[in-house]
Amino acid sequence: MSNIYLANLISVGLFGMILSTAFCDIHWTRQKALIMAGSAAVIFLFQGIVYFWINPDIVEYLYPVITHFPLTVILCVLSKKCLWPTISVLVAYLCCQTRRWLALLIVAVFSGDATMQDIAELAVTLPILLVILRFAAPSVRSFARYSKSVQFQFGLVPALYYGFDYLTCVYTNLLSKGVLAAVEFMPFVCSVAYIVFVVHASSEGRIRGYLEQTQEILNMQVAQAVREIEALRESQQKTKEYRHDLRHHMQYLSNCIENGQLERAQRYIHEIYSEIEAGRVTAFCENEAANLIFSAFAQRAKEEDIPMQIKTGISQNISVCESDLCVILSNALENALHACQGQKEKGLPGSIEVSAYEDHGKFFLQFINSCDENDITFYRGLPVTNKSGHGIGVRSICAIVERYNGIYSFSVKDGRFILRTSF
C-alpha cells in the first residue's frame, strides 16, 4: 500500500480521536491530557503492529477492536461515565463520513482514482475538523448534561449507522451489491429519526413556552404584589408617625380651644382622623403580608359598597413564602372584586367571603363571591375567558399551588363562584 494511503489512515485516526475527546464532557487537566495523548500513541502502535507485521488488509476489519473499543474505555475512565463517552466515539465516527463523502465528490468531478481519493481526504480533513470543533462540538458536548434517555435518543442514529456501515461495507458487500434492504436502511433510519425529532421538539417547545409564560406571569404578579405591599407599608408607617406626633397635635388643638377657634380645631381633628383612617391596616390575622393585602382589598370593596367578610387565622411563620401568598391572595381577591363589580353594573347584589386557616402543616384558602353563572365557562375544571387581560390570575394561582404539590378547585353554585386551595 502507498504512503499516501498510510498517511490518510493516520489522519482519519487522529480526526476521530480528536472529535471523540472534543465531544466527550471531560474537565481536562494536564494529567488527563497526558493520559489521553499516551493512550492515543498506544492505539496507533497497535495499528502499526497489525499493519506492518500481521496483515495490512485486516486493519479495517479489526479497527473496532484496536481503535474504537480502547478509545471508548479510555474516555470512560477519564470522564467516569459510560454512556456518553460511547456516544461521543459513535458521533465522531459518523463525522468521519463527511470527509469521505467530500473526497468522493471531488473524485467524481475530476474522474480521479483511489490515489486521488486518499489525497482529497487528506486535504479536507483539517478544514472539516476545525469547522466541527468550532461550531458543532460545544452543542454536541452539551447533550452530556441531559438525562440518559435524551442521550440515548441522540446516540441512536450514530450507533445504527456504525453497525450498518461495518455490516454492509466492511464485513460484507451487501451495499455494493445493491441489496434493497441495505440500500434503503439508512434512509429509513433518517426518516424515522426526523419524525421523532419533530415530535419531540414540538412537545419540548410547547412545554418550554408554557413554562416561560407561567414564569412571566408569576414575575409580573409578584412585582405587582410587592409594589402593593410597599405602598401599604408606607401608609402604615405614616400612621405610626401621626400617632408619634400626637402630643404636637394635642398642643395645636389646645391652642385653638384657648383662643376660641373651635371650628378650626374641629376641621383639624377631621383631617387628622381621615389621614389616620386611610392608612389603617386591620389586623385580620398574625401574618403581616396577608393583613396588608386584606386591608387594601377591604378598603376597595368598601369604596365600591361591596360587603366583604374575612375569616382568617394565618400565622406569621407559614410554609408558603410571602411573595407566593401575596400573588394568590391578590389574584383571588382581584377576580372576586371584578365579578362583584359586574354584578353591581347589572343592578344585582354582590358580596365576597374569604376563609383561610392552617391545620397540621397544611394551608387552606376559600374565596366565595357573587357572580353571573352565564358569564363563566369551564375548560378542564378551570374557568376560562376570551377577554383580553383576563385569565392570568387563575393560571398564576394554579401554578403556585402546583409548585407546592397542592390541590385547587373552581366551581359555581347558586350564583356564587367558589375557589378552594389546599397546599
Describe the protein.
This protein is an alpha+beta fold and 423 residues long. The protein has a domain at 3-145. It has helices spanning 3-23, 30-54, 59-79, 83-110, 114-142, 148-170, 174-177, 180-244, 246-258, 262-278, 288-303, 322-345, 392-403, and strands at 308-312, 352-359, 362-370, 377-379, 382-384, 407-413, 416-422. The strands form two sheets. The chain has a five-stranded mixed beta sheet with strand order 1-2-3-7-6, covered by helices on one side. It has a two-stranded antiparallel ribbon with strand order 4-5. A hairpin with a 2-residue loop joins strand 2 (352-359) and strand 3. It is elongated, with a radius of gyration of 37 Å. It starts with a helix and ends with a strand.
Précis, in short:
The protein is α+β, with helices and mostly antiparallel strands. The protein has helices at 3-23, 30-54, 59-79, 83-110, 114-142, 148-170, 174-177, 180-244, 246-258, 262-278, 288-303, 322-345, 392-403, and strands at residues 308-312, 352-359, 362-370, 377-379, 382-384, 407-413, 416-422. It has a domain at 3-145.
pLDDT averaged over residues: 82
Number of helices: 13
The major beta sheet can be summarized as:
5 strands, mixed
Q: Beta-sheet strand percentage?
A: 5-15%
**Which structural category do the helix and sheet elements fall into?**
alpha+beta
Distance between the termini: 75 Å
Question: Helical percent range?
Answer: over 70%
Low-confidence stretches: none
* SSE sequence, one letter per element: HHHHHHHHHHHEHEEEEHEE
Shape: elongated
Q: How many runs of DSSP E, i.e. beta strands? A: 7
Radius of gyration: 37 Å
Describe the strand arrangement of the main beta sheet, using strand numbers. 1-2-3-7-6
